Amino acid sequence: MSVRVRFAPSPTGYLHIGGARTALYCYLIAKAQKGSFILRIEDTDLERSKREYELAMIDDLKWCGIDYDEGPDKGGEFGPYRQSERTQTYLDIAKDFVEKGFAYPCFLTTSELEELTAKAESEKKSPHAYHGKYRDLDPAEAKKRVEAGEAHIIRFKNPRKEWSFTDMVRGDVKFPVDMVGDFAIIRSNGMPVYNFCCVIDDHLMKMTHVIRAEEHLNNTVRQLMIYEALGAEPPRFVHCSLLVGEDRQKLSKRHGATSVKQYREQDYLPAALMNYLCLLGWSHPDETDIFDINQMDSIFDLNRFNKSPAFYDITKLKFFNEQYLRALSVEDLATGFEKAIPSEHAYHAKETSWKLDFAELFREKVQLFSDIVPQLGLIFDETIEQTEDVVDVNSWETTPTIRDYVKTRVSEIKASGSENITSEEFKEIMNHLKKELKIKGKPLFMGLRVVLTGKTHGPDLSKAIPLTPISTIEKRLS
Ligand code: GLU
């Protein structure tokens, strides 16, 4: 049987980082087993679902590099892939369930339901203990009341037994008899409920694996009941570990950016984000951390999931992004910087070859493309900020000597018509200071850095100085 795995988001918001991790796992499992990966949109909650979010999710998945074989915008043999377009199928099966005695109409009004829930709670019973009031109503009588137009929902007739299944992450999971009651499968407005639609679709779409977040574990018991009523074999379940923030609480907005959209806006590299997400609850057999998700086909192994909560750490994600930036071609690095630098900045007037040298110079100084912006001053600032460390270096005995000599050389070089100090000229300045003026070690390197750039740190000076306009250096020296 060929492997079929679906990612089934509800379009009620932007793609969450946890959703992207689930989608990635679904995709990798399908690819590793030469199967199909399917996108199904679960939009039965009509009030909260928006087409705008569906489109944004599709766009985010594309950006992540998670490509599906079948989906609402691609079609496929098992469509439609949007639940709101499958309502009739669910209603037909609900009708069939009622006819076969797997489900029944329930005429409890909202206030009656509230009363019964309160009664059960006051008697320390499960809240659903009395929800089955119409469970044994004569089916002919129930049918008559439905046909007369009486308001009702359809409840699943819980067979009231213990349930268990083997989760590929959690092992054997058992559910006690009274964990759930006779749960709704069709609402009073005639719309089917998630657990019902999900099973019908997974069954009709021939899914072999269901991979989803841990919070769906409790839905699984209801879903197992529906599989049984359908006479269908349940798929293999993988409930992924919870994503938590530093406080070990479920990842939420207060922990920082939680949607893929936000990481896109911050110009993270999708490959870095995917690599990092892949390791949140799964480990690579070679214990390597940096790998390309496109080369995981033969590696992604279902047995390497970890069930303990995964700590989502933005600092670590940035570290991954940094590694990926280091590996980019210089052209791509420069393009990334180009987009991050405000359009009015003098950087944009520079020639392409200058921009490539500039990108190379800062390659190992950034974790994100936008980290380049605060570093632009190294090349472009004409005035020197008198920070404590700059004042300190300026107070060293040797620094005025360095400044005097550099001033002389800069005037000479400028007078010769050059717009920059070349790296050879820079080396000559260094050598002169070292050999003739006997300044060495830290006083030389730090002194020269502060005199030329006005900063105590930065990338290789012999490469930074040739990129700095000589007129800028002259102003710094004045
Ligand atoms: N629509 C559900 C969600 O977005 C999917 C659950 C599942 O994968 O079964 O959480």
TrEMBL record:
Residues 3-318 form the Glutamyl/glutaminyl-tRNA synthetase class Ib catalytic domain. Pfam families: Anticodon_2, tRNA-synt_1c. GO terms for cellular component: cytoplasm. A motif ('KMSKS' region) lies at residues 250-254. It is found in: Cytoplasm. Residues 350-477 form the Aminoacyl-tRNA synthetase class I anticodon-binding domain. It catalyses: tRNA(Glu) + L-glutamate + ATP = L-glutamyl-tRNA(Glu) + AMP + diphosphate. Its main location: cytoplasm. PROSITE patterns: AA_TRNA_LIGASE_I (PS00178). PANTHER family: GLUTAMATE--TRNA LIGASE, GLUTAMATE--TRNA LIGASE, MITOCHONDRIAL-RELATED. Monomer. Catalyzes the attachment of glutamate to tRNA(Glu) in a two-step reaction: glutamate is first activated by ATP to form Glu-AMP and then transferred to the acceptor end of tRNA(Glu). This is Glutamate--tRNA ligase. The gene is gltX.
